[in-house]
Design goal:
G protein-coupled receptor activity, Tumor Necrosis Factor Receptor, subunit A, domain 2, Rossmann fold, receptor, G-protein coupled receptor, six-stranded mixed beta sheet, rod-shaped, 31 strands, alpha/beta, 25 helices, eight-stranded mixed beta sheet
Length: 907
């Protein structure tokens, strides 16, 4: 910086030089005047461009950057030319510029940007006087009203902190770090490119559209890469459904083998094939090289940010590894006017660009001769006749459009400000001299015009431009020229042509990048703690169904799960069918028993007055046969479809038939026992042995069963139920609801318990009467009947209760019960009545009347018979007893015929 002053003496000038040098210490490194481009104008804009790359250690600047530096710089000057020649935009006002080189280094750019604020630094000149006592005349430094730039986000952040202090608005053409959207810290910063938060949203939408939920991230160390990844991670957390497997930072100065380690780390979560990459071109290239070196071509699926975009340089010689990579780039267009402008630039017509000669040498690979500079041997000498695009490769740099839009945005804001503050004034009026920065910022935020590519240029409250991106995929197969193919756009929402995408080897199916694959139908997700995108699949087993993707729930008790376990369906209801094998056998036995019982009853009725029928005790026999008939009949009630009526009859007749049978037999055995016991004491017959008495006793015993059943009816009326627990095996496909009566196993046993008590009591009396001669009574046939019946029911108990846990419980228990009852009835029928029917039908000659004797004579005869039989078997000390005359005893027995004795004891 130089101060030009008019001083009449050297003392005054010396003081000014001291003040000037103090200020230069803040702005000039090592006392070197920074190089810059100065374009005169009524209003001056600042410009920051990475004309040179970052230099090696100790050197601020490196080689010239043709595209990102020279192309962008020339784009600003081209835009200034267009604006200054436009009669409708800032008429009679020319825009000038002070353009500086940032050398792609944030600290160096900060030093350079102090040039923009020196006019705003207040200097205290009160103690500086010339010899005549007047203050010095110090020319006013040029005032920069706004700055175009910078390029890198880290550079823009550094510069924005300084410009904010002096209220100088700044419009960037390439800085996309989300951090710069913080209006509280960077309120004077705006940009015509969308922030990386939009880019991150677009990349997230792409990832989700491809069905990925498990990806890794790669970021170059620095503001751009780290901020981009941070934005992606934050947005993905807010959106949910996406997990970051690895988040790896590429060091600014990577050591040898660093990229091989990065690939190894990525392979630790090999399922995360998708890699979100915010990195510079060099880092992208070295990542691809390391993947190829590790023989992982086609494994990683890259989603690259705009730093990759549609560039060839990062993938050169690594095309097979990059195949299928999806990249995004802010929506842009090539500006034809700039191409015409730039390709016409030469050393003669572009002297305002102080770095153009350096660009010329690099672009045409030649050397310009300059005074004092030794010419390099082996390098072609520049002739000056070379032409851009004709003698060198030329492709417009991608951010040229945004540089032009940034300059135009500043111009439109100044134009609106001039219209409001200086209506009708030609040139800059007093209200705009100087331009107030905070007011200009408001006008910048209010601009809305069609930019150089025909798209709208505007800013939101944070100074950000709308997000507009083109989406590319690098494809090699099935296209004539391998390269980037536009497959979609993103403008606040994604439009992606999935059918146009293709992957390694031309595959059209989108590869998967998931931690866990979707669960099969009927499987729930058991999440891995801390990783919401990873889970284990667990089958909903038993009677569970999939309530939601994370929960298995039990079906209602009357339902079972669908085969795919996505819901529940009603459980089929069954009952014991007549055609079932479990029913056929009991029904067959019952029919045979009913026919046999009917035959016996019919025979007894037909021969009702014959001696054998009368001797068998007709009254009790008919009662007993009725009980037997009911026992057989209960089989049909037990198999019939349950209803209220059927259930009522089951309760009534289940125990009634057995109760009737065993009450009659108990009465008979008790009568026989009492007769012979009484005969041992006296010849007087015992009481209550007449047929009427026997019937009364029998009906009293039966009434106990009936009373219990009717009490049961009153306490719990009969009804049907559907038992869903009885046939509920582990496999729900075999689950059935069983239609049944409301009779539990316990109530069924209680219903039979009284009959069993009668049966056991009858058995006891049969045992006590076993000594009575077989010729004289029915005690022994009744005894054999009861012994056999007890065996049948002893076998019934373990079978009935042993099947309580079986899925065929109802069928087995019903069959067991009915068969046991039919067998017990058959035993009684067969042992007590079939022999009599046989005699009546086949030996009618034995069914004749004999004369009767008194009770005393019969008892004495029976006693004699018993004693004789005992004496015939006694031998004492080898001595033989005197045997009675057998012929006399047999003649005695013949005198008391069997049917007569039976008639006496069995009436």
């Amino acid at each position: 910086m130089k101060f030009h002053q008019a001083c009449p003496d050297l003392s005054c000038c010396a003081k000014l030089m001291v003040f000037s040098s103090l200020f230069q210490l803040c702005t000039i490194k090592q006392g070197t005047q920074p190089q810059s481009i100065k374009i005169e104008g009524d209003i001056t804009l600042g410009g920051l461009f990475p004309v040179h790359s970052r230099g090696p250690a100790g050197v601020p600047c490196g080689e010239v950057k043709k595209e990102k530096g020279i192309h962008r710089l020339e784009a600003m000057m081209y835009a200034l030319d267009q604006i200054n020649s436009d009669p409708d935009l800032l008429p009679n006002i020319t825009l000038g510029a002070r353009i500086l080189d940032t050398c792609s280094r944030d600290t160096y750019a900060l030093e350079q940007s102090l040039t923009f604020v020196q006019a705003l630094i207040q200097k205290d000149n009160s103690d500086v006087r010339c010899s005549n006592g007047e203050p010095p005349i110090i020319p006013k430094p040029e005032r920069v009203v706004g700055v175009i730039g910078a390029s890198g986000s880290s550079v823009s952040i550094m510069v924005a902190n300084v410009l904010r202090l002096f209220a100088i608005p700044q419009i960037s053409y390439a800085s996309t770090a989300p951090e710069l959207s913080d209006n509280s810290r960077y309120e004077f910063f705006s940009r015509v490119v969308p922030p990386d938060s939009y880019q991150a949203q677009a990349m997230l939408d792409i990832v989700k559209a491809m069905g990925w939920n498990y990806v890794s991230t790669l970021a170059s160390e620095g503001n751009y890469g780290e901020s981009g990844v941070d934005a992606f991670q934050q947005i993905s957390r807010e959106a949910g459904g996406l997990c970051i497997a690895q988040s790896i930072k590429i060091p600014r100065e990577p050591k040898p083998g660093e990229f091989d380690k990065i690939i190894k780390r990525l392979m630790e979560t090999s399922n995360a094939r998708g890699v979100i990459i915010f990195a510079n071109e060099d880092d992208i290239k070295r990542v691809l090289q390391a993947a190829k070196k590790s023989n992982l071509t086609g494994h990683f699926l890259f989603v690259g940010s705009d730093s990759w975009g549609a560039k060839i340089s990062p993938i050169q010689d690594q095309e097979d590894v990059a195949e299928g990579a999806v990249t995004i780039l802010p929506k842009r267009a090539s500006i034809d006017g700039f191409d015409q402008y730039f390709t016409s630039r030469s050393l003669e017509n572009n002297r305002r660009n102080i770095w153009f000669a350096e660009f010329w040498e690099d672009d045409f690979k030649c050397k310009l001769t300059r005074p004092g500079i030794k010419y390099e041997l082996g390098r072609r000498k520049c002739t000056g006749d070379e032409r851009i695009s004709r003698d060198s490769q030329y492709e417009q740099e991608g951010k040229v459009q945004f540089v032009i839009d940034a300059v135009y945005a500043m111009a439109h804001a100044l134009h609106s400000m001039h219209t409001d503050l200086c209506p009708g004034s030609m040139g800059v009026c007093d209200k705009m001299d100087p331009v107030e920065g905070r007011m200009l910022l408001q006008y910048i935020h209010g601009v809305n015009f069609n930019g150089s590519a025909g798209t709208g240029v505007m800013f939101n409250e944070n100074g950000d431009a709308p997000g507009r991106y083109d989406i590319f995929q690098y494809q090699m197969s099935n296209i004539s020229n391998p390269g980037y193919r536009n497959i979609g756009q993103w403008t606040n929402h994604l439009r992606l042509n999935l059918e146009e995408m293709q992957w390694s080897g031309g595959d059209r199916k989108i590869p998967e990048s998931v931690c866990s694959f979707p669960c099969e139908s009927g499987e729930r997700k058991k999440m891995v703690k801390g990783v919401p995108c990873c889970w284990h699949c667990e089958l909903c087993d038993g009677y569970q169904y999939l309530l939601d993707e994370f929960t298995c729930d039990m079906c209602p008790y009357d339902m079972r799960p669908l085969k795919n376990r996505t819901g529940c369906r009603p459980t089929p209801i069954i009952k014991l069918e007549w055609s079932s094998p479990w029913a056929i056998i009991p029904v067959f036995l019952a029919i045979l028993g009913i026919l046999a019982t009917t035959g016996v009853i019919a025979t007894f009725i037909r021969f009702n007055d014959t001696p054998i029928v009368r001797a068998s005790g007709r009254e009790l026999s008919y009662v007993l046969l009725t009980g037997i008939f009911l026992i057989y009949l209960i089989t049909f009630l037990m198999i019939a479809e349950p209803s209220v009526a059927v259930c009522a009859f089951r309760r009534l007749f289940l125990g009634l038939g057995m109760c009737i049978s065993y009450s009659a037999m108990l009465t008979k055995t008790n009568r026989i026992y009492r007769i012979f016991e009484q005969g041992k004491k006296s010849v007087t017959p015992p009481k209550f042995i007449s047929p009427t008495s026997q019937l009364i006793i029998t009906f009293i015993l039966i009434s106990v069963q009936l009373l219990g059943v009717f009490i049961w009816f009153g306490v719990m009326p009969p009804h049907t139920i559907i038992d869903y627990e009885e046939q509920k095996p582990p496999n729900p496909e075999f689950a059935r609801g069983v239609l049944k009566c409301d009779m539990s196993d316990l109530s069924l046993i209680l219903c039979l318990s009284y009959s069993l008590v009668l049966m056991i009591t009858c058995t006891v009396y049969a045992i006590k009467s076993r000594g009575v001669p077989e010729t004289f009574n029915e005690a022994k046939p009744i005894g054999f009947t009861m012994y056999t019946t007890c065996i049948v029911w002893l076998a019934f108990v373990p079978i009935f209760f042993g099947t309580a846990q079986s899925t065929e419980k109802m069928f087995i228990q019903t069959t067991t019960l009915t068969v046991s009852m039919s067998l017990s009835a058959t035993v009684s029928l067969g042992m007590l009545y079939i022999p009599k029917v046989y005699v009546i039908i086949f030996h009618p000659e034995q069914n004749v009347q004999k004369r009767k004797r008194s009770f005393k004579a019969v008892v004495q005869a029976a006693t004699v018979s018993t004693r004789l039989s005992q004496k015939s078997s006694d031998k004492q000390n080898g001595e033989s007893k005197i045997e009675p005359d057998r012929s006399q005893f047999q003649s005695f027995l013949s005198y008391w015929p069997q049917n007569a004795l039976h008639g006496l004891f069995s009436m």
